[in-house]
Amino acid sequence: MLTHLLDPGANQLCPLYLLTPKLLQSWLPQIAEPMATSITANRFTAKKGQSLAIFTPNGQKLVLAGLGSQPTTADIGTLPDVLGEERYCLHFAPGDLDRTGLALGWLLGCYRYERFQRNKSKLPFLLVAGADTKTALAQAEAICLARDLINTPANELGPVALEQAIRDLAKPFAAKITSVVGDELLQQNYPMIHAVGRAAEQPPRLVHLVWGEDTDPAISLVGKGVIFDTGGLNIKTGAYMKLMKKDMGGAANALALAHLIMQAGLPVYLNVWIPIVDNAIAGNAYRPSDILPSRAGMSVEVDNTDAEGRLILADALSRAIEDEPELLIDFATLTGAARTALGPELAPFYTASDQWADRLLAAAKTAGDPVWQMPLWPGYDSLLDSDIADICHTASSSMAGSVTAALFLQRFVGDTAWIHFDIYGWSLKQRPGQPIGGAAQGPLAVFTMLRDVYGK
């Protein structure tokens, strides 16, 4: 996929024109009559996803492609499906569309998850003059890392394999990796990570990636790594279990952000904590009504074993704040309530910091990575009260489920500046540059924010 963006030295390329309906209408009177006739006869209107090959009077082939009436750089991602296996140069595009953004949109439109298919897609190649190709490639590589991890089924991406994927990410950047595995989690005081994952064939673990100089501002990331969620003893029905390979989407998105930070060489001290479990069922599985100790010292009443993500995150967040980071960010495919509130395409986030919220919202617009701030409403905090423990991990009301999950996690971050993402991590429909399947939600927005704040 990343090879489908051509270098400036490429030759023998077919000119590609990206048009809106308005631009097409202004262009038609200026071109040779046979070309205009061909466009009209073939009913090319520059609708998004349309393409048409025409020829100049001297026989040169041109390809026209439609972007629709309100184009974005992502819309170029519709074209790899329709242009065929050919080599193109971007000859014209609306002037307000950033060339680096177009290059990124093209690369994401070329993404395919075909690891288990014998027949691979044959896709076109494109030269985008004026684009920062290095930036586009780095961003595409990070996004596709998240997509690949989420799309990989759990029989291929268990706890061991996900740890190896983190080690593979770390190696080219000389980042340091350590892991705490199995019963060692109890010895090092991560009891809730151990409880959630202990019933699985592959033991639970907490993987830690460290990169950068410890004299730089400290940024910590946490990603929920539930490689498959049966629901535990509160078992899911088949329809709700079908997509649960994506329940490590928080880890995938945290790793995509880590990739962006390291690739750009941002002057930050990066710590990434990935708790990895398989929420399986066995005789030693944790149960509803269990009381679990936590790293933070609080006792936690388990109400529903299908709300396992917040338990492993709580231990990981507790460890992350011990390093006193300037900013702590977690990503998690945490609640269905977030989907009810905002749907699958918009990434909800929570923070008590107006300053970081404003920075993130502005960066998201710049990056074209949509996010939406949700309220940490203190009035719902009492819904987490327990009669027999310090806190219950789910609320006594089914309402505002995403908010109460965030309020539970807030108990474990102290006064640390903190942003929590409750993402879906999956695209239910094909969109420009985004096929059905694993989705990166938030990494580009957060990276843009961090680059604006900490970039040299």
Secondary-structure map:
Blueprint: E1 14-19, H1 21-27, H2 33-41, E2 51-55, E3 61-66, H3 80-83, E4 87-92, H4 99-109, E5 125-127, H5 133-151, H6 159-170, E6 176-181, H7 184-187, H8 191-197, E7 205-211, E8 218-223, E9 225-229, H9 238-241, H10 249-264, E10 269-279, E11 291-293, E12 299-301, H11 309-321, E13 327-332, H12 336-342, E14 347-351, H13 354-367, E15 371-373, E16 391-392, H14 401-410, E17 418-422, E18 426-427, E19 437-438, H15 443-454
Parallel strand pairs: 1-3, 1-4, 4-5, 8-10, 8-13, 9-10, 12-16, 13-17, 14-15
Antiparallel strand pairs: 2-3, 6-7, 7-10, 11-12, 14-17, 18-19
Helix pairs in contact: 4-5, 5-10, 8-11, 10-15, 13-15
GO molecular function, one term: metalloaminopeptidase activity
Organism: hydrothermal vent metagenome
EC number: 3.4.11.23
- How many strands? 19
- By CATH, the architecture of the largest domain is named 3-Layer(aba) Sandwich
**Which structural class should the secondary elements be placed in?**
alpha/beta
Mean pLDDT across every amino acid position = 96
CATH topology of the largest domain: Aminopeptidase
Poorly predicted spans: none
Strand proportion, as a percent range, falls in: 15-25%
Number of helices: 15
Radius of gyration: 24 Å
Separation of the first and last Cα atoms = 30 Å
Largest sheet: 9 strands, mixed
CATH superfamily of the largest domain: Zn peptidases
Helix content class: 25-40%
CATH class of the largest domain: Alpha Beta
Total individual domains: 2
Shape: elongated
